[in-house]
Amino acid sequence: ISIEFTGLRPGEKLYEELLIGDNVSVTQHPMIMSANEDHLPWEVLKAKLAELLNAVEHDDYARVRQLLRETVSGYTPDGEIVDWIYQQRRLEP
Length: 93
What we know:
Blueprint: E1 24-26, E2 33-35, H1 42-57, H2 61-71, H3 84-91
Antiparallel strand pairs: 1-2
Helix pairs in contact: 1-2
């Protein structure tokens, strides 16, 4: 079977970052660091998840993207929404 590298698809990563940001602490082990990430209180997160599920149920992907921008620290999409069903529905009258 021949394998042909075609490049990354939109949204794919070449590598995975285990720690995001510079707010890390040392642990007892010199090669293990602990992340100090921002987080939302449970009640706020639960409300945002309910909004997100509602937007998905109504195929409102612009709202999904807006909610992700508002909720996920550092989320900055770099292109259009790449979802074939969404794209097809946009073209339908």
